[in-house]
Specification:
Blueprint (H helix, E strand, L loop, with lengths): L5 H23 L7 H9 L12 H18 L7 H4 L2 H7 L5 H15 L4 H25 L3 E3 L2 E2 H25 L11 H18 L5 H16 L2
Antiparallel strand pairs: 1-2
Helix pairs in contact: 1-2, 1-3, 2-7, 3-6, 6-7, 6-10, 7-8, 7-9, 7-10, 8-9, 9-10
Length: 230
């Protein structure tokens, strides 16, 4: 593995510091919100706004993402490591599908490695999972009335669509309007592009089993974006 650059060290500090803050926030919100795990799920997506600082593919994927796969696996409800299973992170893991957060970190790792040269597309794939899927569950559980599938509501699916659409616009603005990202450029017909991706994410979220959506959605979207040449 390459020697970390200043950008890599800044990225590592940002990732670990940010994730620690997110875990603390989700723990502090216990008892105040109905689903603190989903707060963790959504807020973790904020990493897409500073992982651009990494200079080395292997360091971003191997040191900033993969360690969380191991950590979350050891903190899962079926882990034999009691102090991690009973930690704040372990408690959050137990609130949903046993390996949901493990798949979350796995998709982060795969996308960080495979799309390192196009972090704009990588960020959209992660946003689809964190912001889109996350808001869909919150809105669907709280306001969902009209079901269109057994475990999906119109309100929840609409929230997935809107959250993904807005996320794409925000990511485009940040990467090409704020930090002047040098790899690639903004998509042609941005609104149409955002609508098409948001529509695909909404359909995927509706038909993908909840046990594996944290893996399926970002990987399918990243493949779709790569196919489009984004």
């Amino acid at each position: 593995m390459s020697v970390p650059t200043e950008g890599d060290l800044l990225g590592l500090a940002g990732v670990y510091g940010y994730v620690a803050c997110v875990v603390i926030i989700s723990w502090a919100l216990k008892g105040r919100v109905t689903n603190p795990r989903k707060v963790l799920h959504i807020l973790t997506g904020g990493i897409v706004f500073f992982w651009w600082s990494f200079d080395t593919r292997e360091i971003m994927a191997g040191l900033a993402a993969f360690p969380f796969v191991v950590l979350l696996l050891l903190a899962s409800p079926l882990s034999p490591v009691a102090f991690l299973r009973n930690s704040p992170l372990g408690v959050r893991s137990a609130e949903g599908h046993p390996y949901g957060l493990v798949w979350y970190a796995t998709s982060w790792t795969a996308i960080a490695y495979l799309l390192f040269s196009d972090l704009f597309a990588a960020s959209i794939a992660i946003a689809a999972m964190s912001f889109g899927d996350g808001m869909g569950e919150i809105v669907g559980r709280r306001f969902g009335k009209m079901r269109h599938l057994r475990h999906r509501t119109v309100e929840g699916s609409f929230a997935v669509f809107v959250a993904t659409f807005v996320s794409i616009l925000a990511i485009n603005w940040f990467y090409f309007g704020v930090i002047d990202y040098q790899f690639g450029g903004p998509p042609d017909m941005l609104i149409l592009f955002a609508l098409s991706v948001a529509g695909l994410v909404t359909c995927l979220e509706a038909v993908t089993p909840g046990q594996v959506d944290n893996l399926v959605i970002p990987l399918v979207i990243s493949g779709y974006l790569h196919m489009l040449g984004v």
